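Weekly structure sync, notes
Attendees: PL, DS, HV (note-taker this week)

Item 1: Carboxypeptidase regulatory-like domain-containing protein
DS walked through the input record. Source organism listed as Komagataeibacter sucrofermentans. Sequence as pasted into the shared doc:
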Amino acid sequence: MNKYILITAALFLAGCHPDPDSVRAPATAWDMSWSTKEGTATITGSAYHIYFDYHYYPSGNGTMQTLPVGPGHKFTCAGHDVQLLPQSPASDPVVDHMFRYGTMTGPKVDSAEVAPFVRHVTCDADGQFTFSNLPAGVWYAVTNIWQGNIAVKEIRTQSGQTTSVTLKHDWNYPPSWRHGPHL
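Item 1 (cont.): predicted structure, written out as tokens:
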């Protein structure tokens, strides 16, 4: 009888596992120290958002149909700060906060754990930017395009290579497979 109780208890315990976030390494500066080294990778990119004017048409069934009119207005990151953050458990929630709340400043963004590792450049008049001398790794490029429209792109760099990216304000970030809904 005791054997069956032990087997049952073992099965129950085998089915238990900790929350993945509790197993994740603590967010420390060590997670991002690799990003301070000089490397040979380069990121070039642009950032934009197209805003359309809309016209409302009666649909015939008592509702209105909304359709974009004209070519749209293109807004770029010209004159705005572009931030490059190394991907780590410390920077993941910061980038999510930037995107979700449409801000690139604030106590969460300027935290002492992350701020020393953030690189900055300013978009030129054409909405172009370049980060040079980067070590190989995974980065987040973040910029404000227009009225709180934060664009985020995860970028993987390799030594000696130039990676070209386009940042657009899309609703498909942050990737749900990386972070739980508690952020």
